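Progress note, sequence design subtask.
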C-alpha cells in the first residue's frame, strides 16, 4: 500500500495541469483500491459549498456543475465533522442527499475523508462502491493519508492561482475581496500594474562553451552593466529613503564583487560552462543557502540574490533597459508581481507608486522594508487569485489587515476614501510632535533606541528622533563574504558607526551565526539548528573569532565612550563569565595600543540577551556579571512556545501576545527592577502599538525598534498614562489566549484615541 501511495502522489506531483492531476488521482485510486467510483470536491468559502472538480465512476458532466452546501449531504457532514466517514449503505444515512445529475443510484458503500490544510477544510475525497460493504481499516488509513498529502498540493495550487480560474465573461460589477499578510501599514487605492520579468535564472537551459576567455569577458561586461544600473537606482533613491534602507543595494555590489560571486562564476566557466550557465549554477546555490536559513530576514535575502542573478543574466543576453517592453504605468498605481524585489521597487517611479501587492514574500522581505521606509502600503503573500486578474483593475489596499478589494463598488470606494483622509490627518498629527520627548501624560520618560545592521554595508543611526542604537547586528558582513572579515575590515566598519553620533549609546551584538544562520565558508550541519551550535556557544568554542571581533570593536571605540557590547543566546552564567574573561583580555591588549598614541580606551558596558527561557531563572546570578539585560522577544517567544515562525504549518501559533510570553516579559521587568539592573527590549513587540503600552506598564523604560516604528511609538507614549496602562496589563495577564489579549488591547487603544494605529481611519 505504501508503494501505491508513493506512486499516486508522484503522479499528481508530475502532472503540470492541476485539473488533470485531480482526474489522474481519481483514476489511480480506483485502480489501487478496486472501487467503483472516486470523486473530489473542493471548498468555496465565498459561496459556502463544495464543488465537484473531478470524478471517475460518476457522471463526468457533473464536474464543475454540482455543488453541495457546507451543511448538506454526506460530503457536507465530512466537512463539518472534519473526520472520515465510512458507511456500508449511503442511502440509509439520515444526512444522505440525492443529486440526480451525478448518477449514483447504483452505489451503496461510501467512504470520504476531509482534505485539511492548516486547520482549514479545503475539500473532501470520496470513494463509492455498488455493493453494500464497510471499507476496511487499511483502505480508510490509505484514503486519510492520501487526503493529507493532497491538501498540500491543493494549497500550493491555490497559491499559483490554478484553482480560481478567470471566468471568460466577468460582469462589470464584479468585485472580489482578497486576504494577504500585512507588509507595510497604510491605505492605498490605484490601478493594478503587473510587473513582468523577461528573464529568469531558473528557466535558463544549461550550455557548454570551449571559449573560456570570451565567456569570462562577457560575464565581466554584464557585471559592470549591472553595477552601473545599481548605482543609478541607488542615486535615484537618495533623499527618498533613509541611508540604511538605501544600503540594500550594497548587497548587490558585494555579491557582484570579483572576490565573491564573480570568483565562483569564473571557476564554473573554466570547467567548461558558458557564462549564463555558470551564473545560473552559482546563483541557485546562493539561493539554496539563504532559503535554508531559519532567520526570517536572511531567508528573504534569497529573493534579492535571485533578482540580482536575473539582472546579470538579462545583460548577458543583451536585454538592456532599452530593449525591455515599456508599459504605460498609471498615475496612481498598485505594483503587482509574483515576488516584488527591492530593486524592482527602486526602479518604479515613486510619484506613481501608491501601493504594493506581492504574491510571495513576508514582512521580513526587502520590499516590505523599503515600502515602510517610503511610507507605501503593502500586502504580501496574496495567494487566492490568479495574479493576472489584478492587472488593470481598480484596487483598494489595506496594509493594516492585509485586505485587498478588487473592482470595488461606489459605496465601498466612498467609505475607503474617507478612511484615507482620516489616516492623512493622523499622520500629520504624529509628525507635528516628532521633536517632542517621549514622555507619558504622567511624566514618565522613555528612551527610544533603534535596531540596525540589516544592510550589508555601513548603517548609520541617522534618525534624529532616536536616543541611540539598542541593537546592531554584526553578522551581516560575516555572512556575505567568502571568508571571515579581517580585524581591520571590522574596525573600519565599527568606527564609522560609532563616530556617526558619538554622544548616543551604540550597542553591538557579538557574532550571532551558526545553525540557523550558517556561514558558507564555515559549514555547520545540524538536524535542529535552533537548538544547536549558535550565538555565544559557537564564538566561545572558537575564541579566535570572538577575540578578533572584540578587539575590532574596542579599537574602533578608542577616544569614544558610546560602545556597549551584547552577548547573544546566553543560557548560563558560565558563558557570560568566560566571555567577559576574553573581553578583558582583548581590552588590555587594545588599551596598550591606545596609550602608545596618547588616546583613551573606555571599558564598554557588557550586556546579556535574554532569549532562552533558562535565563529567566538565573537573573540574580547573571546580574552580578553584566551591566544590563536586553530582551530579544522574537526568539524568546519562539522558545517559550516551541514554534518556528518560519514554518508555515505552525507560524500562526507564534504570537508575542501569548499569556506565557507576556508573563515572562513581566517577570523579567520586575526582577530587573529589584536587582537594580537596566533592561531594554529589542524585539518586534517594542515597535507595536499594543506592545508599547504593555511594556510600559511592566516597567520597561528603554525600547529598541526599527526606524519606521519610532515616531508612532513616541506618539503612543505621549498619549497614555501609566496607571491606565497598568490596569490594562493586570487584565490581560488573566486572559487565556492571544486573541482575547489583542481584542482587549485594541479596545484600550480605541478608548484613548489611538485606534488609528492598529486599523484604518482615526
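Output:
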Amino acid at each position: 500500500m505504501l508503494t501505491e501511495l508513493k506512486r499516486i502522489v508522484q503522479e499528481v506531483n508530475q502532472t503540470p495541469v492541476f485539473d488533470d492531476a485531480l482526474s489522474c488521482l481519481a483514476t489511480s485510486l480506483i485502480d489501487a483500491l478496486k472501487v467503483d467510483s472516486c470523486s473530489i470536491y473542493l471548498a468555496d468559502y465565498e459561496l459556502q459549498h463544495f464543488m465537484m472538480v473531478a470524478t471517475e465512476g460518476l457522471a463526468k458532466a457533473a464536474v464543475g456543475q454540482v455543488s453541495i452546501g457546507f451543511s448538506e449531504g454526506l460530503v457536507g457532514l465530512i466537512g463539518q465533522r472534519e473526520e472520515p466517514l465510512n458507511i456500508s449503505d449511503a442511502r440509509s444515512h439520515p444526512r444522505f442527499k440525492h443529486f440526480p445529475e451525478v448518477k449514483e443510484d447504483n452505489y451503496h458503500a461510501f467512504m470520504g475523508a476531509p482534505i485539511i490544510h492548516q486547520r482549514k477544510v479545503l475539500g473532501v475525497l470520496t470513494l463509492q462502491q455498488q455493493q453494500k460493504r464497510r471499507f476496511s481499516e487499511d483502505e480508510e488509513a490509505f484514503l486519510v493519508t492520501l487526503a493529507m498529502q493532497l491538501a498540500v498540493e491543493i494549497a500550493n495550487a491555490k497559491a499559483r492561482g490554478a484553482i480560481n480560474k478567470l471566468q471568460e465573461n466577468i460582469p462589470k460589477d464584479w468585485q472580489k475581496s482578497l486576504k494577504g499578510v500585512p507588509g507595510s501599514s497604510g491605505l492605498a487605492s490605484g490601478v493594478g500594474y503587473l510587473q513582468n520579468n523577461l528573464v529568469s535564472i531558473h528557466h535558463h537551459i544549461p550550455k557548454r562553451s570551449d571559449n573560456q576567455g570570451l565567456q569570462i569577458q562577457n560575464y565581466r561586461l554584464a557585471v559592470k552593466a549591472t553595477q552601473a544600473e545599481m548605482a543609478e537606482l541607488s542615486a535615484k533613491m537618495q533623499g527618498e529613503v533613509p541611508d540604511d534602507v538605501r544600503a540594500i543595494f550594497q548587497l548587490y555590489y558585494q555579491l557582484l564583487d570579483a572576490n565573491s560571486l564573480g570568483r565562483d562564476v569564473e571557476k564554473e566557466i573554466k570547467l567548461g560552462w558558458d557564462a549564463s550557465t555558470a551564473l545560473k549554477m552559482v546563483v541557485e546555490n546562493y539561493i539554496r543557502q539563504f532559503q535554508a536559513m531559519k532567520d526570517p530576514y536572511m531567508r528573504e535575502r534569497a529573493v534579492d540574490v535571485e533578482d540580482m542573478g536575473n539582472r546579470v543574466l538579462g545583460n548577458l543576453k543583451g536585454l538592456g533597459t532599452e530593449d525591455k517592453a515599456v508599459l504605460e504605468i498609471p498615475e496612481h498605481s498598485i505594483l503587482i508581481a509574483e515576488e516584488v524585489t527591492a530593486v524592482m521597487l527602486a526602479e518604479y517611479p515613486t510619484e506613481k507608486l501608491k501601493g504594493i501587492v506581492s504574491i510571495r514574500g513576508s514582512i521580513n522581505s526587502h520590499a516590505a522594508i523599503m515600502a515602510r521606509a517610503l511610507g507605501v502600503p503593502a500586502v504580501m503573500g496574496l495567494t487566492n487569485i490568479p495574479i493576472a486578474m489584478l492587472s488593470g483593475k481598480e484596487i483598494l489596499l489595506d496594509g493594516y489587515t492585509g485586505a485587498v478589494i478588487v473592482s470595488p463598488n461606489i459605496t465601498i470606494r466612498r467609505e475607503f476614501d474617507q478612511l484615507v483622509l482620516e489616516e492623512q490627518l493622523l499622520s500629520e498629527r504624529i509628525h507635528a510632535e516628532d521633536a517632542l520627548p517621549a514622555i507619558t501624560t504622567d511624566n514618565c520618560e522613555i528612551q527610544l533606541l533603534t535596531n540596525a545592521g540589516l544592510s550589508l554595508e555601513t548603517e548609520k543611526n541617522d534618525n534624529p528622533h532616536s536616543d541611540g542604537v539598542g541593537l546592531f547586528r554584526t553578522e551581516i558582513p560575516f555572512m556575505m563574504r567568502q571568508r571571515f572579515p579581517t580585524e581591520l575590515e571590522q574596525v573600519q566598519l565599527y568606527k564609522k558607526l560609532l563616530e556617526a553620533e558619538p554622544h548616543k549609546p551604540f550597542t553591538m551584538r557579538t557574532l550571532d551565526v551558526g545553525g540557523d544562520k550558517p556561514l558558507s565558508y564555515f559549514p555547520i550541519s545540524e538536524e535542529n539548528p535552533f537548538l544547536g551550535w549558535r550565538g555565544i556557544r559557537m564564538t566561545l568554542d572558537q575564541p579566535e573569532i570572538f577575540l578578533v571581533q572584540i578587539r575590532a570593536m574596542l579599537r574602533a571605540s578608542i577616544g569614544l565612550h558610546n560602545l556597549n557590547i551584547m552577548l547573544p543566546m546566553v543560557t548560563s552564567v558560565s558563558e557570560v563569565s568566560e566571555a567577559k574573561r576574553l573581553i578583558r583580555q582583548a581590552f588590555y591588549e587594545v588599551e596598550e595600543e591606545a596609550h602608545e598614541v596618547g588616546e583613551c580606551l573606555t571599558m564598554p558596558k557588557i550586556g546579556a540577551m535574554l532569549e532562552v527561557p533558562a535565563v529567566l531563572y538565573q537573573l540574580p546570578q547573571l546580574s552580578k556579571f553584566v551591566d544590563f539585560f536586553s530582551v530579544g522577544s522574537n526568539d524568546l517567544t519562539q522558545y517559550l512556545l516551541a514554534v518556528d515562525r518560519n514554518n508555515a504549518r505552525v507560524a500562526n501559533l507564534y504570537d508575542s501576545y501569548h499569556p506565557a510570553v507576556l508573563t515572562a516579559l513581566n517577570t523579567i521587568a520586575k526582577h530587573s527592577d529589584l536587582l537594580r539592573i537596566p533592561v531594554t527590549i529589542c524585539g518586534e513587540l517594542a515597535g507595536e502599538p499594543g506592545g508599547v503600552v504593555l511594556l510600559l506598564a511592566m516597567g520597561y523604560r528603554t525600547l529598541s525598534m526599527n526606524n519606521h516604528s519610532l515616531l508612532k511609538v513616541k506618539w503612543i507614549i505621549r498619549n497614555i498614562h501609566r496607571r491606565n496602562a497598568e490596569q490594562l496589563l493586570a487584565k490581560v495577564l488573566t486572559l487565556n489566549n492571544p486573541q482575547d489579549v489583542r481584542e482587549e488591547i485594541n479596545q484600550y487603544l480605541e478608548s484613548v484615541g489611538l485606534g488609528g494605529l492598529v486599523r484604518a481611519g482615526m
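The chain is about 45% helix and 15% strand. Work on this subtask will continue into the next period as scheduled.
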